[in-house]
Amino acid sequence: MARPRIGLALAGGGPLGAIYEIGALCALDEALQGLDLNALDGYVGVSAGAFIAAGLANGIAPRELCRSFIEDEAAGDDLFDASLLMRPAWREYARRLATLPALLAHAGLRCALDRRSLLSALEPLGRALPTGIFSGAAMEAQLRRTFARPGRSNDFRRLARKLVVVATDLDSGAAARFGTPGLDHVPISQAVLASAALPGLYPPVEIEGRSYVDGALKKTLHARLLLDDGVDLLLCLNPLVPFDSAGEGIPRLVDGGLPLVLSQTFRALIHSRMELGMGGYARSHPDVDILLFEPDQQDPQMFLANTFSVALRRVVAEHAYQQTRAMLRSRRGTLGARLARHGVTLDDAVLDDAHRHLVEPRPPRSRALRALRRLDEVLDDLEHKIQLYAQTT
User: Fold this and answer.
1) How far is residue 83 CA from its own chain's centroid?
2) N or C terminus: fewer CB in 10 A for the chain?
3) What is the pLDDT of residue 376?
4) Which of 33, 7, 44, 29 is closest to 216 using CA atoms?
């Protein structure tokens, strides 16, 4: 009997998505016996998921990813500095600024000679606006060094496992599947950077004269790349879901202002598209077991998290780890039967261990810090009570 073929598809979601996926993958790695997340038959990653998929395909275990990205405890080139994600795109700013004098002169001529309205004449000035706030150059260099270590590779063709990183060709709108024939010569670090280039935050990534942006613009998971390759079991992780605020003390998301409205809108759009895709996968590949792991839609911690804080990265990763373990426990019967068909079993001892953690809590370093933390908790509680009072009066 042939060995079951198993694949992993990872969606995007920015820093929050990467943190959730690392926490969830650590839980799956420990709870699923007979499954080696570094020895699967194929990986496909989109945006933040591309970082994780490239790491796994290069033999970096989920716990190692956690030490590198979450705990800041990895050594050497494996330590991923989160500040690399927020380096200003100075080169892009300078390049666009250099075009401003010519654009101003052109606008003045249009206004004077063509007798156009001022608003119409100023339209070309939009070309002087930067295409992104942050630069990905330092991030790509970090990935290049990480994949250059012994036993790893920055070349798709030299990996022992299939890896596909999906970006979007800006000029055609087509999906670019780096790692497949014709695009497998592009360095993995460049492909990952292109896949994660969210328009507005990061400039498009130029590769061989083409401009590439975030791969999630086309599809959320791109799981068909593995399904058509003949996998028998496909594990899918999607970190972003729309938030259902019912019963959570947040009666209307609009009260949270523009950031919450935009977040909910973006999540609802990509999740509805993913649901359509999952339905299509089930119809086109009925013999494949497709298992989707994602946060609970009534989980405010995954919706409201500020992942730019090192301390909160640990909290969110631990939360994702524990929530994934809880989900595995609650679906133990149905999941166990489907996994068993592929030689994978649930480890009940791991799932039922109430003392198991992803990261150990860090106690405050001094009495003053403990007092400040307690004060912060009291103020949060007071703010919550004031909001509740305001809603009932």
Assistant:
1) 16
2) N
3) 54
4) 44
Distances (CA, A) of 144 to 16, 58, 140: 22, 12, 6
Asked if 164 contacts 43 with a C-beta cutoff of 8 angstroms, the reply is: yes
What gap in Å lies between CA 22 and CA 18, rounded to an integer?
Answer: 6
pLDDT at 377: 53
Measured CA to CA, the distance from residue 32 to residue 335 in angstroms comes to 11
Burial class (CB in 10 A: 0-12, 13-18, 19+), 101: exposed
Distance between CA atoms of residues 117 and 134, nearest Å: 34
Query: Rounded mean pLDDT of the chain?
Result: 87
190: Cα separation from own chain's centroid: 17
Look-up of token digits 């409205």: 261
Question: pLDDT tens digit string along 173-186?
Answer: 999 999 999 999 99
- CA dist 263 and 139 (Å) reads 24
Angle, vertex CA 40, rays to CA 35 and CA 44, nearest 5? 125
**What is the Cα–Cα distance from 17 to 240, expressed in whole angstroms?**
7
Q: What residues have CB less than 8 Å from 28, skipping those under 6 apart?
A: 35, 37, 62, 235, 293, 324, 328
Q: Is the separation of the CB atoms in 103 and 128 below 8 Å?
A: yes
Residues 238-267, mean pLDDT to the nearest whole number: 81
Task: Mark out the alpha helices in the chain (DSSP H runs).
Answer: 14-31, 48-57, 62-65, 90-98, 100-113, 118-121, 137-147, 188-195, 224-227, 258-284, 300-304, 310-330, 332-340, 348-351, 367-392
Match 């998290």 to its residue by tokens. Answer: 305
- Residue entry with tokens 């679906």: 331
Q: Could you identify the residue written with the tokens 């003390």?
A: 249
Neighbours of 37 (CB within 10 A): 20
pLDDT in tens, 100-156: 888 777 777 767 666 656 666 667 777 888 999 999 999 999 999 999 999 999 999
User: Residue 39 gets which letter from DSSP?
Assistant: S
The residue length of the chain stands at 393
Contact criterion met (CB below 8 Å) for 205 and 190: yes
